[in-house]
Amino acid sequence: MLDRFKDFWQGVVLMPFVKLFIRLGISPDAVTFVGTVGVCVGALAFFPRGELLSGVLFITAFVFSDLIDGKMARTLGRKSRFGAFWDSTLDRIGDGAIFGGLALYFAGPGDSYLYLCVTLWCLVMGSVTSYARARAESLGMDAKGGLAERADRLVSILVMTGLADIFDLPILMFVTLWALAAASAYTVVFRVRKVYRQAAVLDAAADAEEKPPAA
């Protein structure tokens, strides 16, 4: 859902940074790496100590690198297979750090075994959602769609975590985690069913080609 705003952010808000980094000779891969390190530091240094708003603000300062590196690559005319692999791999690390940091918060100052489990569920289902799409595409099939794209997951949990800390309303974070848990589970099931239907058609076509012609 939030992917529709990418053009606005990349073309208007973040373009000065794109031009500056290109002028300085910084590579898109370096921006991806620094952004991921920043996200991990913010999530794992602040969240486990209960400093939720500070963590959200710190993460936000780096999370836009995911938009900047892609715009830089397109501006430079670079289409790198390694760059695509690098970006996707570090995305998983950043996502894991954010939900892992929240899990540590619930294991510590948040003191909630229930929401520790819900957060871990969101972490695992988020990874499976991304893996299902990547694996399907490697097999020549499409697994796009569902309710919980990566941008939706990150923006919703970061915004609601920050607001929960500002207004001392942890219910905002709790409701968001439950919504993400349900949406991620639905998305995984949706993608599995979508790939199953495509695989059935492809396998049937392959079987038909292998059968010897009738005498």
What's the short story on this structure?
Pfam families: CDP-OH_P_transf. With 215 residues, this protein is mainly alpha-helical. The protein has 2 domains: 1-111, Up-down Bundle (Four Helix Bundle (Hemerythrin (Met), subunit A)), CATH 1.20.120; 113-209, Four Helix Bundle (Hemerythrin (Met), subunit A).
Shape: flat
CATH superfamily of the largest domain: CDP-alcohol phosphotransferase transmembrane (TM) domain
Radius of gyration based on Cα positions: 20 Å
- Assigned CATH architecture of the largest domain: Up-down Bundle
Counted by DSSP, the helix tally is: 9
The overall pLDDT, averaged over residues, is: 90
Question: What's the total number of strands?
Answer: 0
Helix content: over 70%
Structural class, by secondary structure, is mainly alpha
| First and last CA, distance | 55 Å
Low-confidence stretches: none
The SSE string, one letter per element, is HHHHHHHHH
Beta-strand content estimate: under 5%
Main beta sheet, described? none
How many individual domains? Answer: 2
- Per CATH, the class of the largest domain reads Mainly Alpha
Q: What is the subunit arrangement here?
A: single chain
- By CATH, the topology of the largest domain is Four Helix Bundle (Hemerythrin (Met), subunit A)
Cofactor: Mg(2+)
Family: Belongs to the CDP-alcohol phosphatidyltransferase class-I family.
Subunit structure: Homodimer.
Pathway: Lipid metabolism; Phospholipid metabolism; phosphatidylinositol phosphate biosynthesis
